[in-house]
Amino acid sequence: MNNNVDIEKYFKPDLNKARKRSKQTIEELQFNLSDAHHKIGVDKTYSIHTYGCQGNEADSETMAGILELMGFANSSTEENSDVIIINTCAIRENAENRIWGELGRLKKLKRQNPNLILGLAGCMAQEVNVVDRVMKKYQHVDLVFGTHNIYKLPEYVETAMFSKERVIEVYSQEGDIIENLPKVRNHRFKAWVNIMFGCDEFCTYCIVPYTRGKERSRSKEEIIKEVSELVDQGYKEVTLLGQNVNAYGKDFKDVEYTFGDLLKDLDKVGIERIRFTTSHPHDLDRKTMEAMRDGKHIMPHFHLPVQSGSNPVLKKMNRHYTKESYLKVLNELKEIVPGISITTDIIVGFPTENEEDFFETLDMVDQANFEGAFTFIFSKREGTPAAKFEDDTPEEIKKQRLYLLNEKINDGYLRGNQRFLNQTVKVLVDGVSKHDDQVLAGYSEHNKLVNFRGNRDMIGQIVEVKITQAKTWFLLGEAV
Ligand code: 5AD
Ligand code: SF4
């Protein structure tokens, strides 16, 4: 990797450029920390605040890995930190508003400690209006970098620390795939594993294809190597990450190797549990379903975002499927993997969604029998096509729709839990319950939260639990 590129000040993003998909071949490069960067952080500390999805959590683990390789130690309080990085999410306006609030709050800390380096990273940094606002109104932010250049963190920290210049460097388009990135994982037995980056779907409401660039898959060798190393380190569960894992491998030239193949190969690596997120219905194929059926370690849970049950709305969202074709794929999946638990994402109040469309969504929830969902009110994202769609539904109506939808979704959570009453399930024990430290908490194979009494030695183990009560949000049981 060329580590000697001059840092250009004010390297700002451009959503129009980010929209373009180049034909350039993606190369695989290895991360190396130069000697000059090894000792910069000795006797100094950092903290990272993470917002948003699992992709961001995984990125924060990489940032932590890089900073620790530079000698920085993790700080338990932000008051003592020499470097604070806010890893941001741009998916909805309320996520962004919280982050602006946090940046404002950190101004005081910067005044108390002018040597503090405050960095803004992640998806918000990919938006030009965000970078402009930071440059003008948030002078206390020293460092802005995006999702494509995390590996350059050592240079940025060095510049901010020694030349006392602001560093603003955001690439509009993705670069190569960087391997060998160090990581400090947040969990001792569950790990995130990126299998691909970016998204080419361009759902009309979504900013992700602009902030995360074009779809590019990691090589199967690198993924298998990472999962094998995790097994050696005692990890029990991996969650494979991508914006649309079902498109894995579609960008490979000359090789026919897709998500189903990857699942089959990973099933043999020796990891106890394999999960993945997130999926797109129109890329979900039979090979994947069969890999789930045949695999011994692939968990029987599928998060399959539907977004809406109305065909006109799905079309306007650019989702490439109809209510009927979604249900067809779903029913095929349920047939091939009996008992599988299905969860989803749904947006209400998308521009043009009327009452009839919304009832189609409610009907969809009934027919699909979802056992959980993340539900959202549409949020206008500058630069996406849907931001220009006429939207005349009052906010109050949107809130009512969300309320009605959530009632139905909650019934699904309860039904999904009730089907395990009196059964024995396998639970990977995460730790003690948030509400009672005499109680252990973990997730079943179907991804249901289970609480039961047991001893702390069970943490990190897979334990059999007989379910005695089913509540909406969790199951109660006894270790057998
Ligand atoms: N407004 C509301 N929800 C959104 N999502 C993505 N973009 C938006 C938006 N502009 C939701 C989708 C997606 C999930 C990660 O976030 O449901 O599946
Ligand atoms: Fe966004 Fe659609 Fe890509 Fe998911 S598939 S990240 S909703 S554009």
TrEMBL record:
Residues 418-480 form the TRAM domain. Keywords: 4Fe-4S, Cytoplasm, Iron, Iron-sulfur, Metal-binding, S-adenosyl-L-methionine, Transferase, tRNA processing. Its EC number is 2.8.4.3. [4Fe-4S] cluster 1 binds at residues 53, 89, 123. Residues 44-162 form the MTTase N-terminal domain. Residues 185-415 form the Radical SAM core domain. [4Fe-4S] cluster 2 binds at residues 199, 203, 206. It is found in: Cytoplasm. CDD domains: Radical_SAM (cd01335). The keyword tRNA processing applies. Gene3D superfamilies: Methylthiotransferase, N-terminal domain, tm_1862 like domain. It catalyses: N(6)-dimethylallyladenosine(37) in tRNA + (sulfur carrier)-SH + AH2 + 2 S-adenosyl-L-methionine = 2-methylsulfanyl-N(6)-dimethylallyladenosine(37) in tRNA + (sulfur carrier)-H + 5'-deoxyadenosine + L-methionine + A + S-adenosyl-L-homocysteine + 2 H(+). Its cofactor is [4Fe-4S] cluster. GO terms for molecular function: 4 iron, 4 sulfur cluster binding; metal ion binding; tRNA-2-methylthio-N(6)-dimethylallyladenosine(37) synthase activity. Its main location: cytoplasm. Binds 2 [4Fe-4S] clusters. One cluster is coordinated with 3 cysteines and an exchangeable S-adenosyl-L-methionine. GO terms for cellular component: cytosol. Belongs to the methylthiotransferase family. MiaB subfamily. Monomer. Catalyzes the methylthiolation of N6-(dimethylallyl)adenosine (i(6)A), leading to the formation of 2-methylthio-N6-(dimethylallyl)adenosine (ms(2)i(6)A) at position 37 in tRNAs that read codons beginning with uridine. This is tRNA-2-methylthio-N(6)-dimethylallyladenosine synthase. The lineage of its organism: Bacteria, Bacillati, Mycoplasmatota, Mollicutes, Acholeplasmatales. The gene is miaB.
